[in-house]
Amino acid sequence: MKVLSSILSTAIICASTSFVYAQEGTTTQTASAPSSYSCDPATCKPSNNCLCASSNPPNGLDPKETPQFVVITFDDSVQDALYGTAQQMLNVTNPNGCKAKGTWYVSMQYTDFSLVQQWYAQGNEIADHTFTHVGTPSAQEISSAKSMLHEYGGIPLNKIQGFRAPFLNYTAETLKQLSQQQFSYDSSSSASSESDLFWPYTLDYGMANDCWTGICNPGLKLPGFWEFPMYAVMNNASVPQLMDVYLSGSPEDVTKWSLDAFNKHYNGGRQPFGIYVHPTHLSSYPGLPDPKPLMDGVINLIKNLSETKDVWVVSNQQLLAWMKNPVKASEMANQPYMKCEKPVLPSEICNGLDDNNSGGIDDSLLNNCNFGTSNFKTCFNCPSGAPSVSSPTPGSSTQNGTAGYRYPVPASCDPTWWDPIGNKCFCDASATNCNYKNMAVATNKTTNGNGTTSDATSVMTTLPLGQIIASMCVALLWETFSYSR
Ligand SMILES: *[C@@H]1O[C@H](CO)[C@@H](O)[C@H](O)[C@H]1NC(C)=O
Ligand SMILES: *[C@@H]1O[C@H](CO)[C@@H](O)[C@H](O)[C@H]1NC(C)=O
Ligand SMILES: *[C@@H]1O[C@H](CO)[C@@H](O)[C@H](O)[C@H]1NC(C)=O
Ligand SMILES: *[C@@H]1O[C@H](CO)[C@@H](O)[C@H](O)[C@H]1NC(C)=O
Ligand SMILES: *[C@@H]1O[C@H](CO)[C@@H](O)[C@H](O)[C@H]1NC(C)=O
Ligand SMILES: *[C@@H]1O[C@H](CO)[C@@H](O)[C@H](O)[C@H]1NC(C)=O
Ligand SMILES: *[C@@H]1O[C@H](CO)[C@@H](O)[C@H](O)[C@H]1NC(C)=O
Ligand SMILES: *[C@@H]1O[C@H](CO)[C@@H](O)[C@H](O)[C@H]1NC(C)=O
Ligand SMILES: [Zn+2]
């Protein structure tokens, strides 16, 4: 009852402020061809970490031999219920028997960093969506989120490569900041017509999407920095839908529009296809409409796509690895970045995985950090005060050498092998006995390669059932109402 009233009062606040904010990327503008863009593929080549915007696959690959990538992305805070929704959406298998992977663009407020770590430990991508979820973010909004994902989620700094601007509201300055802060790519722009249906490309010759905003000004050149356009789906009135397409019509209509768009990519230049969601709309909350019909529609669409020949459901970072070294669909299964392996450990350590197969992840090993609106669990030390944009990682509440201290992941150790309590790396450069379990399962999909393994192993994890905490609903409802009304 207490929880419910808190939700309702929050809902009212949210509903009344929602008019102030633009919907976060729900629809976009139909683009015209970028007239100012000019890039010569003879000089701009993958071997120089350069790629021109193009609707054809890189390196002259024949579209029929090119993998059809599908990226599923999740935006905003990572919380129990949202995490469960994301897991259900990725519950399909790639042709090599590994589970589909996704990308989460994480904003900091209300995020549970133990779930950030679990997401990453399962091979998914963690990316930056600012600290407070503001459009046209400052340098500090971008850097503070990265620091927190590293400090409390244990994500190596060099594995946080992607960014998406809140409300997709980015400028040339945002892109420059990202490049300066060592990000590899941005994914805030939209590809909304046949004239800008480009594969990801580097900004050596500037932007070729969203040109109607003036962003394609030739003054903006960021060598080696990538743009991953977001691919729109046309509704039956030819309005491009970008995010949360399932909110724009009945599940039947949305599925039809989505398959039509997908087929344009699949039968055309095999440009990646995207499903971009705010998992809030697809998660159950007391007092809100049952999202099951929407969720069923999305899941059936994802299953349908994943059963299509040569489709790989990947994180944007996996797609980036492919962009840097494009191979045929028949060679995908053997690419190292497509593998799915789990460390085999003697007992449970706080690494985001269920190491002792008890059905729980990091059972009883997590710290609880409570600071009003920033309550989160973590395998690492709690800060001594609430993190803020200007001080995202205040000093630890526990000192090195005292009981309960958690040791940060050293750069030499992958976080899935690191025991932050025991201060031990179970597989570092000097270790010879790193033991992995292949998580691939048998599938009937043909890869024309050597991908599918027959020694199928169990499904990787059972998710802990989350409880809805009143405070977390604040963020959820803010997003829900501001986006759907
Ligand atoms: C994944 O799919 C399997 C089989 O359809 C089902 O048993 C399982 O509960 C699903 N897991 C999630 C997280 O949705
Ligand atoms: C987007 O950015 C512009 C320019 O900085 C700003 O005026 C506008 O309020 C922003 N919109 C949102 C929704 O953040
Ligand atoms: C689009 O489909 C809806 C039903 O889903 C229908 O009401 C509407 O008239 C259609 N619009 C166009 C332009 O065909
Ligand atoms: C996906 O759905 C479409 C339309 O219902 C159907 O024609 C197609 O065969 C389906 N694809 C797969 C692989 O099930
Ligand atoms: C797994 O590890 C946790 C945490 O150390 C422990 O509480 C639990 O008893 C272990 N379960 C099994 C089955 O070993
Ligand atoms: C903790 O203290 C030990 C001993 O003083 C030192 O060697 C180690 O580098 C410190 N570790 C961290 C993470 O501060
Ligand atoms: C593969 O195909 C066989 C025969 O059609 C079927 O019995 C089996 O269940 C399928 N396996 C999977 C993992 O889909
Ligand atoms: C399968 O792997 C073997 C050894 O790695 C290689 O020689 C062979 O060409 C591969 N076959 C295909 C179809 O990729
Ligand atoms: Zn957002």
Distance between the termini: 26 Å
Element string (H = helix, E = strand)? HEHEHEHEHEEEEEEEHEHEHEEEEEEH
| Strand-residue proportion | 5-15%
Please name the fourth-level CATH homologous superfamily: Glycoside hydrolase/deacetylase
| Alpha-carbon Rg, integer | 22 Å
The unreliable regions are 1-22, 450-485
Structural class: alpha/beta
Mean pLDDT: 86
Which fold name is given in CATH as the topology? Answer: TIM Barrel
Share in helix: 10-25%
Shape: globular
Tell me about this structure.
It is a single chain. The chain has 485 residues and is of the alpha/beta class. It has a single domain (2-340, 464-484), classed as Alpha-Beta Barrel (TIM Barrel), CATH 3.20.20. Helix content is 24%, strand content 14%. It contains nine helices and 19 strands. It has helices at 2-17, 80-89, 113-121, 139-153, 172-180, 251-266, 292-307, 316-324, 470-484; strands at residues 68-75, 103-106, 125-128, 162-163, 185-186, 190-191, 201-203, 222-227, 230-231, 233-234, 240-241, 273-277, 311-314, 341-343, 367-371, 374-378, 418-419, 424-425, 436-438. Strand 15 (367-371) and strand 16 (374-378) form a beta hairpin. Helix 1 (2-17) runs parallel beside helix 9 (470-484) and helix 6 runs parallel beside helix 7. The two termini are 26 Å apart. Residues 1-22 and 450-485 have low confidence and may be disordered. Bound molecules: 2-acetamido-2-deoxy-beta-D-glucopyranose (8 copies) and zinc ion. One 2-acetamido-2-deoxy-beta-D-glucopyranose binds at residues 348, 356, 358, 363-365. GO terms for molecular function: hydrolase activity, acting on carbon-nitrogen (but not peptide) bonds. InterPro entries: CE4, Glyco_hydro/deAcase_b/a-brl, NODB_dom. This is NodB homology domain-containing protein. Residues 1-22 form the signal peptide.
